[in-house]
Amino acid sequence: MEYSGGIQASLSGRYATALFELARNENKLDAVGQSLAALKQALAESADLSALVASPLISREDAGKAISAVSSSIGIDPLTANFLGVLAKNRRLGALSAIIRDFTTLSARHRGETTAQVVSAHALDDNQMATLKTRLKSMVGSEVSVDASVDPSILGGLIVRLGSRQIDGSIRTKLNALATAMKG
C-alpha cells in the first residue's frame, strides 16, 4: 500500500517508511509515534543530544551506546529503540529530525489526517493550537495534524505549509515586501 506520496524519494523518507510499515505490521503505530514525539522534544530541549545526532565524529559504537542510554532514560519503546540503534550503526542519526517528520506525515495520512507544518516566532499555547487546528480543518475539510516548530527570525505571525500550499503571514516576509516596494 502506497502511503508515501514522494516521501520515499529521500533518505529520511525511506527510513521513515520502513519504521512506519514495521510499526503498522506489529500494531505499534501509537507507541512508536509517542516515542518519536518524546525524542523530538528531547532533541529540541537538549543541545548535547542534538550535537550527538549531528556529529559525524562520534563512532558508530559510541553513538549506539549513547542513543541506547537516551532511549531508556526517556522511555522509548523497544521497537523505536532498536530502530535508533540501526540508525546509529548506519551513521544516519543526522537524519533523525527528518525521519521523525516523515514518520509523522505517514502516520497522519494513515489516520486520514492532513499534516500542516507550522512555523511560529514563539511556541503556541494550547488555545492557539486548538484555534489553528480548527481553522485548518475548515480549510482542508479533514482532520489536521500540526507539526509545529519555532523560528524567532520570522519575528511574528505564522508560516503554514499544507501539502503544496504555503501561507506566509510572517512579519519578516511582510517587512521584506515593504522594503522591496519602497525601493521602487
SSE layout and pairing:
Layout: H1 11-25, H2 29-45, H3 47-54, H4 60-73, H5 78-89, H6 96-110, E1 114-120, H7 126-140, E2 144-150, E3 158-162, E4 165-168, H8 171-183
Parallel strand pairs: 1-2
Antiparallel strand pairs: 1-3, 3-4
Please give a handful of descriptors for the protein shown.
Glutaredoxin, 184 residues, four-stranded mixed β-sheet, Peroxidase, domain 1, globular, single chain, 2 domains, 12% strand, alpha+beta, 59% helix
Quickly describe the structure.
The protein has 184 residues and is α+β, with helices and mostly antiparallel strands.
Indicate the structural class.
alpha+beta
Question: CATH H-level name of the largest domain... which superfamily?
Answer: N-terminal domain of the delta subunit of the F1F0-ATP synthase
Largest sheet: 4 strands, mixed
Q: Strand-and-helix sequence, N→C?
A: HHHHHHEHEEEH
Question: What is the count of β-strands?
Answer: 4
Biggest β-sheet: strands ordered side by side in the sheet: 2-1-3-4
Rounded to an integer in angstroms, the radius of gyration calculated over CA atoms is 18 Å
The CATH class of the largest domain turns out to be Mainly Alpha
Please report the distance between the alpha carbons of the first and last residues: 53 Å
